[in-house]
Design goal:
By secondary structure, the protein is mostly helical. Helix content is 45%, strand content 5%. It has helices at 15-18, 27-36, 50-60, 66-82, 86-92, 107-110, 121-127; strands spanning 2-4, 7-9. A two-stranded antiparallel sheet has the order 1-2. Belongs to the universal ribosomal protein uS13 family.
């Protein structure tokens, strides 16, 4: 595995796909960077020369990626929670932020379902509630 911009990039993948393993680099930006570096998008990472890797490194320095981008996103979320905006409160409560419904879905955010069953007859008598007939 080669390291470019602080991220491990798989050697067997095409360069166009391999660049997307860097946080903050998607398909569009990867194509743009490859075009600026005058590289063939179909070449494999293992076939890159040192000069080509260096040109990729230099080009990637112009963009906010990896640690800097993660830090910026975390600071934005922290700011929202501190000013107690609606989005900040949703982040704090670990609920969907962008207006999705939570009544039926949002399982990944809310966690596993908790099934609350009916009260058995013996337990109902102990509590003092009238059991259903």
């Amino acid at each position: 595995m080669k390291r470019i911009a602080g991220a491990d990039i798989p050697e067997e993948k095409r360069i166009e796909v391999a660049l997307t393993y860097i946080y903050g680099v998607g398909n569009f930006l990867a194509r743009k960077i490859i075009k600026k570096c005058n590289l063939n998008p179909d070449t494999r990472v293992k076939n890159l020369t040192e000069d080509e890797v260096n040109s990729l490194q230099r080009e990637l320095e112009n963009y906010k990626i990896e640690g800097d981008l993660r830090r910026e996103v975390q600071n934005n979320i922290k700011r929202l929670t501190e000013i107690e905006s609606y989005r900040g409160i949703r982040h704090k409560r670990n609920l969907p932020v962008r207006g999705q419904r939570t009544r039926v879905n949002a399982r990944t955010k809310r966690g596993k379902r908790l099934t609350i069953g009916t009260v058995r007859k013996e337990v109902a008598v102990k509590i003092g509630a009238q059991p259903k007939k």
